[in-house]
């Protein structure tokens, strides 16, 4: 079906609004995009995705940031702070020690609220405005709540966030609090919070802005456009592989959608599509389990634990979109230990790139796949780092150097430095 990498561009159905509509990825049912609020298919409850009669080519892009890619988005502009245009760092020492031809780090922690979630929110909150809703909500391991609070605030809308109590990094709660979200701490994990917020949305209490909302993923697919353009500008080719941390698998789904649309428009050949490679923490790895066992569905893990709290998720709701993305691009998935994540976080930081633990999982996963020979030495690889170091100051303190107490005296400090 159209989830194939080489499927033709579908013709616009009667329900399309200006060449944009929603389609169920399971039964194919099509819906008008903005006439009613819906998150899943009315008929089979399958995931929905946004479809376009005219998918974009690289020539259609102009301007900066997420809205540079408006030709591939449902609107020409959104509620912006602005977002996107993140750096694609060179990391020569890491590249050498991992042992690949090219390694670049796409640092999504450089977005306005410090994570890639801003790309989804600039579009999602624009759609919320179109639909005329007044209260926005999400379940979150932290970053989505920070982004929702900021973009909701920008749009003048009330925001409600449900967080797993005791499992969200300090920086993220601080952001949600100051950007004026109402914060509910639930005695449960992220997956429980998502169940509840879906119930609230089904009862019409809130507009859901988790990545189940197909419009969020539209914004996030611009990460793919940016990587492909920047890599091509630097090297005259596209990367072989993109490695990213996986939680709910929204970003994996979004990148796959970016590639499919560029293939549909003829801007990218199917063999130029980078291999999507997902990384999870060993204590929260249901997607890795499904990929490695060759399953078509993902088993929900009820007990999840990892230092990378952003991806402490046992029920990746976007798996039906993300699994085909990993398989059809020739990618794979791998689990890494908390220790490997912390090592990677430290290594990145020593090369000047400050990321939170979940982000470092991408680099830890690449190293593991290179060591086991799954990734070849001649590959061009981009690792995605999804959130900023300051999101999780406790993890940074634990992984980094400890401050040393010294007297208030230059000579004594020199003596101390000489002796220690
Ligand atoms: N990295 C970071 C820093 C995240 O915050 C998340 C997800 C992911 C990776 C995984 O992305 O869900 O698209 O596979 N954070 C969500 C949140 C769940 O609530 O902030 P995914």
Q: State the strand order across the main sheet.
A: 4-5-13-10-11-12
* Quaternary structure annotation: single chain
What would the CATH topology of the largest domain be? Rossmann fold
Gyration radius, to the nearest Å? Answer: 21 Å
User: What is the overall number of helices?
Assistant: 14
The structure class reads alpha/beta
Can you give the mean pLDDT?
A: 97
Strand segment count: 13
Helicity level, as a percent range?
A: 25-40%
CATH architecture of the largest domain: 3-Layer(aba) Sandwich
Tell me the number of structural domains: 3
Task: Tell the overall outline.
Answer: globular
Instruction: Give the strand content.
Output: 15-25%
Bound molecules: ligand F0G
How far is it from the N-terminal to the C-terminal residue, by CA? 65 Å
CATH class category name of the largest domain: Alpha Beta
């Amino acid at each position: 079906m159209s989830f194939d990498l080489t499927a033709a561009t579908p013709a616009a159905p009667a329900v399309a609004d200006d060449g944009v509509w929603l389609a169920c990825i399971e039964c194919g049912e099509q819906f008008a995009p903005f006439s009613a609020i819906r998150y899943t298919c009315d008929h089979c409850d399958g995931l929905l995705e946004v479809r376009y009669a005219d998918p974009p080519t690289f020539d259609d892009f102009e301007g900066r940031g997420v809205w540079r890619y408006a030709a591939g988005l449902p609107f020409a502009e959104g509620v912006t702070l602005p977002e996107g245009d993140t750096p694609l760092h060179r990391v020569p020492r890491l590249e050498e020690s991992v042992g690949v031809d090219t390694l670049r780090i796409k640092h999504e922690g450089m977005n306005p609220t410090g994570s890639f979630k801003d790309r989804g929110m600039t579009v999602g909150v624009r759609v919320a405005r179109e639909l005329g809703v007044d209260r926005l909500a999400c379940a979150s391991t932290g970053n989505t709540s920070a982004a929702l609070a900021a973009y909701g605030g920008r749009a003048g809308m009330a925001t409600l966030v449900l967080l797993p109590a005791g499992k969200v990094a300090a920086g993220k709660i601080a952001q949600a609090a100051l950007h004026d979200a109402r914060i509910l701490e639930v005695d449960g994990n992220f997956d429980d919070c998502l169940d509840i917020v879906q119930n609230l949305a089904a009862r019409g209490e809130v507009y859901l802005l988790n990545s189940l909302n197909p419009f969020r993923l539209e914004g996030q697919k611009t990460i793919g456009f940016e990587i492909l353009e920047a890599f091509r500008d630097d090297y005259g080719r596209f990367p072989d592989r993109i490695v990213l941390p996986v939680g709910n698998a929204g970003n994996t789904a979004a990148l796959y959608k970016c590639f499919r649309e560029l293939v549909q428009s003829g801007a990218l050949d199917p063999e130029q599509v980078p291999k999507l490679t997902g990384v999870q923490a060993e204590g929260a790895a249901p997607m890795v389990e499904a990929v490695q066992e060759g399953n078509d569905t993902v088993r929900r893990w009820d007990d999840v634990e990892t230092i990378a709290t952003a991806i402490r998720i046992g029920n990746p709701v976007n798996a039906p979109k993300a699994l085909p993305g990993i398989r059809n691009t020739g990618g794979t998935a791998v689990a890494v230990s908390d220790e490997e994540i912390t090592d990677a976080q430290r290594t990145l930081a020593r090369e000047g790139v400050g990321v939170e633990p979940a982000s470092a999982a991408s680099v830890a996963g690449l190293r593991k796949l290179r060591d086991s020979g799954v990734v070849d030495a001649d590959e061009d690889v981009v690792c995605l780092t999804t959130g900023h170091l300051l999101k999780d100051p406790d993890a940074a303190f634990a992984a980094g150097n400890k401050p040393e107490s010294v007297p208030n005296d230059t000579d004594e400090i020199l003596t101390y430095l000489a002796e220690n």
